[in-house]
């Protein structure tokens, strides 16, 4: 079934990624968009989460020179709110409806550059960061919501840690692959490690509910054109499992139950390859 899906993906990845549809039997559900950091490609920001934040799962993006920085849509959608609360709460803020019940909010803006009903694409500038509303300093307040409930944020397939201050590098509108590692492995997986290759990145993911690891290699060059790519996973004491071939977007998913057993993982894009030592043992 995986190979059949990927054959379809090679022909119509753009349509599937844009729609975000996951089909199981006769039922159709909408998967979460592959939300990106809401700043320009390669911008490094600190994602701050803390107990007592309102709402609890909101993220404050911080950076010393953040005032006036362009704020980008973290996924495509339709602008559903453009409001100004004055010197309290969100201050100037924007909400984008991404379909399927998913929305994102961007608050404390110094400028709003879109209007309600406007369609926006991933990476489109919607405003500028600032310090409006009830704040003590400039930052971007950011939320991911599902049917009005604020979710723990996931950015480019990487779960934001709660609670702490974590550095994130934006891959928003850098061009390239429409697939994220969680889209390849499944929404119950979270990225726990990664290694950059020339032409892509290999990811190790873990599903806490099942104790399974998954490896996926996501291409960043020759995207949409079939070329050599692989992903492999070995649970200590077992044989290595590999997915390799000429693929347009990714290799994997390669998944095995590991529990508290160490795993060796890796992958390749062309001649660039990586294999980890045995690690992630508990």
UniProtKB/TrEMBL annotation:
A GO molecular function held by the record: metalloendopeptidase activity
Organism listed in the record: Actinokineospora bangkokensis
Organism classification: Bacteria, Bacillati, Actinomycetota, Actinomycetes, Pseudonocardiales
One Pfam match: Peptidase_M23
Signal sequence region: 1-31
Residue ranges occupied by any M23ase beta-sheet core domain in the UniProt entry: 57-150
Name the UniProt record assigns to this protein: Peptidase M23
Top-level taxon of origin: Bacteria
Keywords assigned by UniProt, alphabetized: Signal
């Amino acid at each position: 079934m995986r190979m059949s899906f990927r054959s379809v993906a090679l022909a119509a990845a753009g349509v599937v990624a844009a729609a975000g549809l996951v089909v199981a039997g006769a039922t159709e559900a909408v998967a979460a968009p592959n939300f990106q950091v809401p700043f320009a490609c390669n911008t490094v920001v600190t994602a701050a989460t803390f107990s007592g934040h309102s709402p609890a799962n909101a993220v404050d993006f911080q950076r010393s020179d953040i005032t006036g920085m362009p704020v980008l849509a973290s996924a495509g959608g339709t602008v559903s709110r453009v409001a100004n609360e004055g010197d309290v709460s969100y201050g100037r803020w924007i909400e984008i409806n991404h379909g399927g019940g998913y929305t994102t909010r961007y608050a404390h803006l110094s400028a709003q550059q879109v209007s309600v009903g406007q369609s926006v694409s991933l990476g489109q500038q919607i405003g500028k960061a600032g310090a409006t509303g009830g704040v003590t300093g400039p930052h971007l307040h950011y939320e991911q919501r599902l049917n009005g409930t604020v979710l723990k944020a996931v950015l480019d397939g990487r779960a934001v840690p709660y609670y702490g201050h974590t550095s994130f590098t934006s891959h928003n509108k850098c061009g390239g692959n429409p697939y994220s590692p969680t889209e390849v492995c499944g929404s119950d997986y979270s990225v726990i490690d990664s290694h950059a290759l020339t032409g892509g990145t290999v990811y190790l993911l873990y599903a806490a509910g099942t104790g399974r690891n998954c490896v996926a290699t996501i291409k960043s060059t020759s995207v949409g054109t079939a070329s050599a790519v692989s992903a492999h996973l070995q649970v200590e004491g077992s044989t290595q499992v590999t997915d390799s071939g000429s693929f347009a977007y990714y290799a994997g998913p390669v998944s095995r139950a590991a529990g508290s057993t160490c795993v060796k993982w890796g992958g390749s894009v062309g001649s660039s390859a990586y294999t980890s030592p045995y690690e992630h043992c508990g």
